[in-house]
Amino acid sequence: MNDIPPKELELRGLHVSLGITRGPAYVLRDEGFHFPIHSIPPSQVESEIERLERAFDETIRQIEELVSGQATAEKQLVDEIVDFHLMLAKDIPRYTAERTKKLISEDLMHAETAFHKTLQELIGLLGRSIVSRDEDVADIGQQILRNLTGKDLADFDDIDEPVILIAEDLSPSLTARLPRDKVLAFATTRGSRTSHTAIMARALEIPAVVGVPDLLNQIEEGQQVIVDGDRGRIVVNPTDRTVQWFGKRREASERRAEDLLRYRTLPGETTDGFVVGLRANIELPEEVEAVIAYGGDGIGLYRTEFLFMNRTDLPTEEEQFMAYRAVAESVAPKPVTVRTLDIGGDKFLTSFSAPKEMNPFMGWRAIRFCLEQPEIFGAQLRAMLRASQFGNLAIMFPMISEVRELRLALVALENAKTDLREKNIPFNEEVQVGAMIEVPSAALVIEGLAPLVDFFSIGTNDLIQYTMAADRGNERTAYLYDPLHPGVLKLIKNVVDVAHAAGKKVSVCGEMAAEIEFTLLLVGMRLDELSMSPITIPAVKRLIRSISLVESVPIAEDALSMTEPEMIRDYLDEKTRLAAPWTSELFESEEIPA
Ligand code: PEP
Ligand code: MG
Description:
The protein is α/β, with parallel strands linked by helices. The chain folds into three domains: 9-32 and 154-256, Glucose Oxidase, domain 1 (3-Layer(bba) Sandwich), CATH 3.50.30; 42-149, PtsI, HPr-binding domain (Enzyme I, Chain A, domain 2), CATH 1.10.274; 264-561, TIM Barrel (Alpha-Beta Barrel), CATH 3.20.20. 45% of the residues lie in helices and 14% in strands. The chain has helices spanning 45-66, 73-106, 111-127, 134-149, 172-176, 196-204, 240-260, 288-293, 317-331, 366-372, 374-387, 403-422, 440-444, 446-449, 460-468, 486-501, 519-524, 537-544, 549-561, 565-579, 584-587, and strands at 9-12, 14-17, 20-29, 33-34, 163-167, 183-188, 208-210, 224-228, 233-236, 277-282, 299-303, 335-339, 392-397, 433-437, 455-458, 505-508, 529-532. Strands 1, 2, 3, 4, 5, 6, 7, 8 and 9 form a nine-stranded mixed sheet that branches. Helix 2 packs across helix 4 (134-149), helix 3 (111-127) runs antiparallel to helix 4 (134-149) and helix 11 packs across helix 12 (403-422). The protein is globular. It binds phosphoenolpyruvate and magnesium ion. Phosphoenolpyruvate binds at residues 301, 303, 342, 438, 459-462, 509-510.
């Protein structure tokens, strides 16, 4: 037996959700499978092998069921794919069964743990072959795994004590259903600060670090892990000294957060009286409590798609009406801007199977989807309109790319109003309507859009990815994904200036609004409102209260005259530290003492 304690290991990633915490690792494989790692007793070997064989047979049976009887041209293509999958479902056991059974009987592994290991080896081998079928093999392999575990995805039922979730990637919908009492924090290999998974982590106030290279090969199930969501690092097998050091850091960070709450009831007003509305982004109605606790001036973005996720049916108009009404009532008289469904990209519905796309973020997403699904869109618009008379509710369309598209969305809204009028169902006839500016083409035709709506909200998360042609969730291209790229800043400036000239207000509701490094710049560009995760409001508010508009405007002008993001970043950091020395500690890097 080896008595040497496991070595402490520090891994770096991106900080996406604040907080420091510690617990045992719970490792999810292949986006959602959790495998037991403890050994089985020898007496269980036989039944594990039987389970494995049943899962193999079940998979073949399921695929056989898909083979259709009719012979239309379309069916023929589908049948060819099904035939191919059937061949794989028979071939995979042929290549993996012997080795898997050996791992079960000699290494006493659970059937799923053993099969997963063998499957990875097979995929690794295929990846090196000329005719690679690794994706198809992975798909069918996952189907076998699902049949083995008996579940579609992890349901976290097997967690006894709170854990640190470790995964290759987490989908936004899985993140939305993480049990708060069982998952202390999470760390993933994939991901970025603006992925919807990161946004959801902030909403749930779960500390999180993403984009940690090679994470799963460096952590074993059950090992102690510290997640430092403030600085974007994790420590595996921390020594007692490190644990103590993080304990102190955690206390300091909690004190700082508590301190910031003093600004809760104060307005986001500069020293020379320019008021910036500081609103909250929410994904779930339950977050209203946090909006109030952190002193939000209402809700600037309610992402309604989460109401449609993690369920097998679509929410009815009535159900949506109740949800929107509850949110509107609980923040009234403060405003809430409810956004119409933004699915596609990295958010999908189980209740609606959309065709797989090569570039989902550039494809059938948000308003593009809604305009082609008048029933789904109509029901949502009617629900929003009905809720509009129970508070200060505005409606906003996401992903607008052109004037014609906005016109079509407004026609759908008019139709929804007509439906309600015909049925004598009341709604607020003066309901405000806005468009999100997330696509560069929209930012450049703002003159055409401005007469059609009451306000704009700039979704920088998407605006940056579409301007830079760099996927917002891809850590590989993260170096290009920069809010301070002059191309992005020029688009924002154009939107603000043209919209203001037309008398329309503009807010930023992308994650850029929440970062204090950018506050001077956004105030200097005269944004009317900033909307962000509730927990981030106090720090931005404190900063706004320590700067003036007269000093921010020339700073923004200077920044906009620069050609490289790094120059702009250094310049803004320096100006921010000068204007608000308390921000310095947040910019400093900080090493764990050796
Ligand atoms: C954005 O794109 O900035 C935005 C707020 O919308 P989402 O993050 O939901 O795409
Ligand atoms: Mg967006």
